[in-house]
Write a structure and sequence with these properties.
A three-stranded antiparallel β-sheet has the order 1-3-2, covered by helices on one side. It has four helices and three strands. The relative contact order is 0.16. The chain has a single domain, classed as 2-Layer Sandwich (Alpha-Beta Plaits). By secondary structure, the protein is an alpha+beta fold. The longest helix is centred in the first third of the chain and has 23 residues. The protein is elongated. Strand 2 and strand 3 form a beta hairpin. The N and C termini lie far apart (76 Å).
């Protein structure tokens, strides 16, 4: 009899956990963003910092070598356009959106394209 009650308790906890987890991740989307002007690890940190200022960012994974970012975000709080804007405001191209020219000028030389160094 005792093992049945423990089993029922376990099932109840699992149902509650599933409900809570489902609610908290219901609005999550993942987008892959092309970063054609990213050059180095400093660029990576600058972009991560810019994206992390946005409410609703869940996870960021930047691949400098392949010049892309994979961003998971809560689409009830932000969208891809806002993420691209944060990146371009930091001085980097994001997908088809060009970098803010003034922000780009302020980047360290290692973060600029070779033709601009």
């Amino acid at each position: 009899m005792k093992s049945i009650n423990i089993f029922k308790l376990f099932i109840a906890v699992m149902v509650i956990f599933s409900f809570i987890a489902g609610k908290s991740f219901a609005g999550d989307k993942t987008a892959e963003i092309s970063l054609p002007t990213i050059q180095c690890g400093m660029c990576e940190r600058t972009i991560e910092k810019a994206i992390n200022k946005i409410d609703g960012i869940v996870d960021i994974n930047i691949d400098v070598e392949n010049k892309k970012a994979t961003v998971t975000y809560d689409d009830t709080k932000t969208d891809l356009t806002a993420i691209e804007k944060a990146i371009t405001s930091a001085g980097y191209d994001a997908n088809d959106t060009k970098a803010n020219a003034e922000a780009y000028k302020k980047l360290n030389n290692c973060c600029k394209l070779p033709k601009d160094r």
